[in-house]
Specification:
Blueprint lengths: L6 E11 L2 E5 L7 E4 L7 H7 L7 E6 L13 E5 L14 E5 L5 E9 L3 E5 L9 E12 L2 H6 L11
Antiparallel strand pairs: 1-2, 1-3, 1-9, 4-9, 5-8, 6-7, 7-8
The structure holds zinc ion (ZN).
Length: about 160
């Protein structure tokens, strides 16, 4: 069958950015299995998988608008060093997790370290990048009612979470 916006698609992918291989799903045992239409994939990838069938292999290049968006300068926030715990590694490029007042968490990376402040970049690491994907579709199937209700694919053993 061809993938529809409600199909479950299993696929292997390799992701390269600026000619550098960042991820290869074949290093894991299982292909990625995703219920389409739930925003679990970047928009360009959702679109590219629609209408595909098992066995198809193809490559796509996704502009930032179809991937993680453009970098935003206002996503760099200046915070007091006190915000970070004593053991925190405060060096440019290090990844940090910030806890919001409402209990949510934000992932970021350290942009710059000052005397008393730290500038944290909350942009997605791949914001502003064009993503190159090599994709091989392994399986396409209808989603079950339960999967659609949960908004995600369930593995071969059924409910696995
Ligand atoms: Zn579920």
């Amino acid at each position: 069958m061809k993938a529809t916006p409600e199909s479950v698609v299993s696929f292997h992918y390799a992701l390269a950015v600026d000619g550098e291989l960042l991820e290869n799903s074949r290093e894991r045992e299982q292909p990625l299995e995703v219920l389409l239409g739930q925003g679990q994939l970047v928009p360009g990838m959702e679109k590219a998988l629609e209408g595909r069938e098992a066995g198809q292999a193809f490559s796509i290049d996704l502009e930032p608008e179809q991937a993680y968006g453009q970098r935003r300068e206002d996503a760099i926030q200046r915070l007091s060093k006190k915000v970070f715990g004593k053991g925190a590694r405060l060096v440019a490029g290090a990844n940090v997790t910030l806890r919001r007042k409402d209990g949510g968490v934000l992932q970021g990376s350290i942009h710059k370290v000052g005397m008393t402040t730290v500038d944290v970049d909350l942009n997605h690491p791949l914001a502003g990048k064009t993503l190159h994907f090599d994709i091989e579709v392994i399986e396409v199937r209808e989603s079950t009612e339960e999967e659609r209700a949960h908004g995600h694919a369930h593995g071969p053993g059924g409910h696995a979470h």
